[in-house]
Design a protein that fits this description.
The chain is mainly alpha-helical. It folds into 2 domains: about 70 residues; about 60 residues, no CATH class. It has 8 helices and no strands. The longest helix is centred in the last third of the chain and has 14 residues. The chain is elongated and about 70 Å long. It starts with 12 loop residues before the first helix and ends with a helix. One of its GO terms (molecular function) is DNA binding. InterPro entries: Homeodomain-like_sf (IPR009057). Keywords: DNA-binding, Homeobox.
Length: about 160
């Protein structure tokens, strides 16, 4: 026996027409189209609604995803576009290492080829603006007689500290 429906979906005629047009024409992200298809399947104003497992099988997703989309529709107070759209992050996933000062230094640097870019990386690391950690170690690039990649007094490991 199917579980009782916790979140019911009733689309207006304009929302239903918009979702049908979105799923059948144009180029839209696949997840947006999939969410729109689920909303159309769950719409109780269009007639009887199939079980969540049947809808999940028709759309090609899991039952939990159908429930999550119905829950999001309820959380957005029936806004179909907010339900099918992607949520915007409040903050970037990782804080940027490049600050305004580092960006200004990069912009001021002349285009001087590979060794100029390497010396800039060494200078930034030496200034303490790039932190070395076990997850992101500062890579030693040698400028000595032995060539690139050799550790020695002239390498960035010794310059960076």
């Amino acid at each position: 026996m199917p579980r009782p429906k916790v979140f019911t979906i009733g689309l207006s005629a304009a929302d239903r027409e918009f979702l049908i047009k979105l799923t059948t024409s144009g180029a839209h992200p696949a997840r947006m189209i999939m969410r729109a298809r689920v909303l159309l399947e769950l719409d109780e104003n269009a007639g009887s609604v199939a079980d969540r497992a049947v809808i999940a099988d028709r759309v090609g997703i899991s039952v939990n995803t159908v429930l999550a989309i119905a829950k999001r529709f309820d959380e957005t107070n029936g806004d179909a576009l907010a339900t099918i759209g992607r949520k915007q992050r409040e903050h970037p996933p990782v804080a940027s290492v490049i600050t305004g000062e580092v960006e200004a230094r990069l912009i001021r640097q002349p285009q001087c080829g590979m060794f100029g870019a390497l010396s800039l990386v060494v200078a930034v690391a030496g200034a303490g603006l790039v932190a070395s950690s076990p997850q992101r170690p500062v890579i030693g690039v040698g400028f000595g007689v032995g060539g690139v990649g050799e550790s020695g007094p002239e390498s960035s490991e010794f310059i960076a500290g």
